[in-house]
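Q&A log
Question type: sequence-to-structure
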Amino acid sequence: MRCPLTVIGVVRTGPTDPADTPVQAALNRVEHGELEVAEEFAAGLADVDGFDHVWLLSWLGLGDEARPPMAQVPFLLRPKPRLIGMFATRSPKRINPIGLSLVRVIEVRGRVLRFAGVDMVDGTPIIDVKPYVPAFDQPQGPSRSGWIEEVELNQGVTPGELGR
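Response status: OK
Response body:
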């Protein structure tokens, strides 16, 4: 089955090395970035400023990666390594390297969406933007978080700080 994707824009952020980029947007809420949407898609940003948060879906692959292992040691478990099934992680090493970042909308101006919550390197391609809607995206009642409940989540932590 074919699944064509179109890059709609790129992010502009401070980090240029994945090892120095926070592992999740929620762990780096203060750093700001920008999404520069291609001119042909700029009209799609209309009304986005009516939302506090959006999901940015990014392409994290360079096109020449080998198929990743189905069990990996996630960044957050590097201090105490343990293999976890790929689908139980948010690792960028995936069969389809699609990133998912929940960011806070600061403003939309023209074809630029300014946001807080950087977890992508400068130049990361964005394949979609979707509004965060608590009624749809926030489960009712308590939710389990598997192995992540066992790790300490520190603001701004990067893969480089967690070791290789």
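Response note: The longest helix spans residues 134-137.
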